[in-house]
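Researcher: I'd like a structural prediction for the single chain below. Treat it as a standalone chain; there are no partners to consider.
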Amino acid sequence: MSTGAISEECVYDLDVDGVGEPVRVAQDPLAKLSAGSGTTVWDSAIALCGYLMRSMRSSPRTALDLSAGTGIVGLTLARLGVERVLLSDIPNGVPLLSHNIEMNDLADRVSALPLKWGDAGNTHDIRQAIDPIDLIVASDLFAWPDLYLDLARTIDALASTTTTVLLAYEERNPAVEGGFFRMLHKKFAIREIPIEALHPEYRSPELHIFEARRRATRSDD
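Model: Treating it as a single chain, here is the predicted structure.
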């Protein structure tokens, strides 16, 4: 892959509190690397990174960044000490993720795999690569209501009763976005992280982070 396809103007740097090295990610708004799937850093991803900087008193051992985009949240987790991080996205998005892993010199603890919501084969590959999953993170995944059921099923397939799921998003249409949470609530207990717990530099009334945990009802847990 040609790293020259991304200009310096499209690179985003995030300082990670308490860590000497920042996270540096290439953005691909014109889809030069991602073959038709433009990718940028969203405000909700930065808010989630900021929350993780403040809340991670002890690092989970493994983490999955679901539909990671640039991978900034998962890469931040690696900077914060998570031992094994997997970045996932649609197949077209994996080259950008791999590029950003290399740019941060984190290939020893971070990797990327394709994951299409609702695809049982992809889900199996994720579980083979990283199991158990201690933490699932995701940001701004609610733009496609027709895919809410597949997203909920994917989280259901990947999360155990010991998995923490953190979902960040920028509120755009609460009536529609609430439909996803109603689906997820059938199997998961969900709470919103208070705005006071968010990083003071990345707080906004429109930015929300929810924590979800599976209820202990599955026979295989």
